[in-house]
Amino acid sequence: MSTTTASAGLPASTPQFHPGYDTCTEVTPICRVEYTTLGYYPNQGVNIFLAIGFGLCAIITLVIGIWKRTWGYSIAITAGCILECAGYASRALLSLNPWNGSAFKTQIVSIILGPTLICIGLYLTLKHIVASLSPSLSPFRPRFYPLFFVPADVSCLVIQAIGGGIAASAGKDNYQLLQHGNRVIIAGIVLQVVVLGAFGILSSIFLVRAKKFFRGVQEQTMTMEKQTWQDKKTKMFLWAMAGGYATLLVRCIYRIAEMAGGWGNEIMQDEPSFVVLESFMVLIACVLFTAFAPGVWFPWMSHSEKVNPGLRARGNGVGQQGQEMGETSSGNEKVVSV
């Protein structure tokens, strides 16, 4: 999407030349690396490391997901990691030839799409956390969270895709249309930050209420809900999800700043900031979501009775906490199985 004009080294009779991915195929005196959208040779070693990291996360998450039968979470995280792996493999190819148009488009699409799918996996956890601890402490019923946040996250993706289409249709001559496309992309990223922010607020409200409630439960009273809350694995899982959430939020905020100046701006052409605030933020999230997979650390999300024997038992009878809150057995079972 570079619109830079290059005339140095050309005969006076040569028409004005616009370096771009449709006119340049490799770095030459008139197709300099500075004229590319990124403006630099991506670091090959870093991008290979990132591609391997995301690839390993995808494989491990898929294996654990099949083993523990955490379908929705595992599919979303695995798909996101595969896209990230493809994106950074493409950036490794750009380190060999920054004018590789196919690699450039692949890394743009993959690195934008990947975190969106990873966020979907994160959003699915809140439903099961609420259902396993106490739905009455949540501002909304458990099934609300995926029904709201997943479509909202997808809409962010659609808006960014529309913006990308507008920017692509602008070509190299219609600067105003290109700017309109950029603004639409930024709107999609801003909406994604808003959705993440809403998720963080609702999660915090529930967890604060749960902490206060279980502190008030008498020591001699041990319900399944309280046992789940006090379990060390549950606490580790919650901290891992919180850490992944924080890194994804930082990444989205960085993306707003990166796109605010348009294609090829100074922030977009600064590789260190991209690696730290985009690449490693998403990789840290994926490592946390993989290392603390819910099938192992929070079996309430598993669809396997062998992994989660307490789930059906809870559905067949109401614990003391459920009785105190006026919950019915059938209602509780229905919520957990959503």
How many strands, which pairing sense, and closed or not: the largest β-sheet?
A: none
What is the fold named in CATH at topology level? Rhopdopsin 7-helix transmembrane proteins
CATH class: Mainly Alpha
Spans of at least 5 consecutive residues whose pLDDT stays below 50 are 7-14, 311-338
Examine the secondary-structure arrangement and name the CATH architecture: Up-down Bundle
Provide structural commentary.
By secondary structure, the protein is mainly α. It has one domain (33-303): Rhopdopsin 7-helix transmembrane proteins. The protein has twelve helices and no strands. The longest helix is centred in the middle third of the chain and has 42 residues, at 175-216. The chain is elongated. The model is unreliable at 7-14 and 311-338 (pLDDT under 50).
Notable features of this structure?
single chain, 338 residues, mainly alpha, Rhopdopsin 7-helix transmembrane proteins, 69% helix, membrane, transmembrane, RTA1
Explain the layout of strands and helices.
Elements: H1 44-68, H2 71-94, H3 101-133, H4 144-169, H5 175-216, H6 224-230, H7 232-260, H8 271-291, H9 294-297, H10 309-316, H11 320-324, H12 329-336
Helix pairs in contact: 1-2, 1-8, 2-3, 3-4, 3-5, 3-7, 4-5, 5-7, 7-8, 10-12
